[in-house]
Amino acid sequence: MKILIFYFSGTGNTEKVAKAYADALAANGACVISESLPEAENKLADIDFDSYDLLGFGYPIHAFNAPANLLTLAEKLPKFAQSKRAFIFKTSGEPVRMSDVSSLKLIKTLRKHNVQVTNEYQYVMPYNIIFRHSDRMAYRMWNVAQKVIPIDCAQILEGTPHSVKRMFMGGLLAWFLRIEHWGARFNGKRYKVNKDCIRCGYCVRVCPTKNITIDEKGKFRFGNRCLMCMRCAFGCPKAAIEIGLFKSWKVNGAYSFDKPAADDLPQADKHANYCKKAYNRYFAAAEDKIRSAENKP
Ligand SMILES: Cc1cc2nc3c(=O)[nH]c(=O)nc-3n(C[C@H](O)[C@H](O)[C@H](O)COP(=O)(O)O)c2cc1C
């Protein structure tokens, strides 16, 4: 089976998941090509879609939405004469049901191109905005995702559908929440660099929409194409980017996903109670899934 995966990742979480998908699908004999955004957009015209049996789409949930650039890519797909099957994987900072509406627009757009989404999965990964999870929690999330992904990939390859339950009026809610795409552009123009900036140009290089420029006087300009993906602010070596109206929500610096040492005492986690029930439910369901896969004859 030949599979083509398109994904966008702002700060690396979805990329980790996309790589785990490619590895798990390949381990089951599939031939997998992964294309990340924004580069994928320029390759669309050269892709021989007929040679692919299955398409995959991966994204981080942004304010209960799929990022605008992935929706644009879906709109630019050809309209296939024969129906194609697809799967979706998403990453999010929290495991709340409302996130399920994030894929509705993507599914609808794909349907117009004769692409039917039969499988959809969500993986909780550490927040890249709002607050920082502890590295211990990041490890737990990634450890569970790495075990669940091969099970989900096996299900995709078997052809067993897996959809998520939608909320009542989910479509309307999703439509309303897409205000985030406009909000990201509005807020993105209000980004600033503070005095800690060393003009290394990291943000300019990594911005997926080329929204950041430095003029000849060294002054930063933030344009109106921001996706609020956080790549610039998260990876800035001096934590010098202020993210507009959401200044206090900035998270800076890569997570360590390594297993904590046995003698590493848990740090006090001031967010330990945030959505605690939802995280417990998510981990319990994942652990159940892993156990039943292990006990499968
Ligand atoms: C602008 C923005 C909005 C977000 N909104 C949500 C959200 O509604 N629900 C959620 O669970 N996580 C949300 N997150 C967290 C990301 O989905 C999560 O950290 C994701 O794994 C990041 O993936 P990436 O590293 O591939 O960009 C948001 C992140 C950003 C930057």
Lay out the secondary structure.
Elements: E1 2-7, H1 13-27, E2 31-36, H2 39-43, E3 54-60, H3 68-75, E4 84-92, H4 104-112, E5 115-124, H5 135-158, H6 170-177, H7 179-188, E6 192-193, H8 202-206, E7 212-214, E8 220-222, H9 231-235, E9 241-242, H10 276-295
Helix pairs in contact: 1-5, 3-4, 5-10
The structure holds flavin mononucleotide.
Flavin mononucleotide binds at residues 9-15, 60-64, 91-94, 99, 125, 127-129, 228-230.
Your description of this structure?
This protein has 297 residues and is of the alpha/beta class. The protein folds into two domains: 179 residues, 3-Layer(aba) Sandwich (Rossmann fold), CATH 3.40.50; 67 residues, Alpha-Beta Plaits, CATH 3.30.70.20. It contains ten helices and nine strands. It has a five-stranded parallel sheet with strand order 2-1-3-4-5, with helices on both faces. Helix 1 packs parallel to helix 5. It is globular and about 60 Å long. The protein starts with a strand and ends with a helix. It binds flavin mononucleotide. Flavin mononucleotide (FMN) binds next to helix 1 and strand 4.
Bound molecules: flavin mononucleotide
**Average residue pLDDT:** 95
Domains counted in the coordinates: how many?
2
> What is the CATH C-level name of the largest domain?
Alpha Beta
What's the CATH H-level superfamily name of the largest domain? Flavodoxin domain
- The general outline is globular
Derived structural class: alpha/beta
